[in-house]
């Protein structure tokens, strides 16, 4: 039986506390980078059909933790910042204002 190290536990908790990435964020991030879905697949090491499926999602992504983190990692490594409500960007960018409806 394997044991969970403190480092793995803190990474897991960090992931669980993070807001779930959305398909809209993936599309916006690709657009800011000038990337196609094929580019994101190559940069993230995730298959093109999987990137296409996640890219076309409306709302929060569902899928394997490793897949979503590989996509997030590829985007962040190339300058994308994922913001939570109240965060300020460190550079140029766009954000969708939450409306009260």
TrEMBL record:
Matching InterPro entries, A to Z?
Cro/C1-type_HTH (IPR001387), Lambda_DNA-bd_dom_sf (IPR010982)
A GO molecular function annotation here is: DNA binding
Instruction: Name the domain of life this protein comes from.
Output: Bacteria
HTH cro/C1-type domain: from which residue to which, for each copy? 26-54
Q: Sorted alphabetically, which Gene3D superfamilies does this protein's record hold?
A: lambda repressor-like DNA-binding domains
Give the protein name, as stated in the record. Answer: Helix-turn-helix transcriptional regulator
| Organism of provenance | Aliiroseovarius halocynthiae
């Amino acid at each position: 039986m394997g044991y969970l190290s403190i480092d793995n536990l803190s990474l897991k908790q960090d992931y669980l506390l993070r807001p779930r990435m959305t398909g809209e964020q993936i599309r916006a991030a690709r657009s800011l980078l000038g990337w196609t879905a094929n580019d994101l697949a190559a940069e993230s090491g995730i298959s093109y059909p999987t990137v296409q499926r996640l890219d076309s999602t409306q709302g929060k992504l569902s899928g394997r933790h490793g897949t979503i983190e590989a996509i997030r990692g590829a985007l962040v490594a190339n300058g994308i910042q994922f913001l939570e409500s109240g965060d300020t960007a460190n550079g140029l960018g766009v954000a969708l204002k939450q409306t009260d409806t």
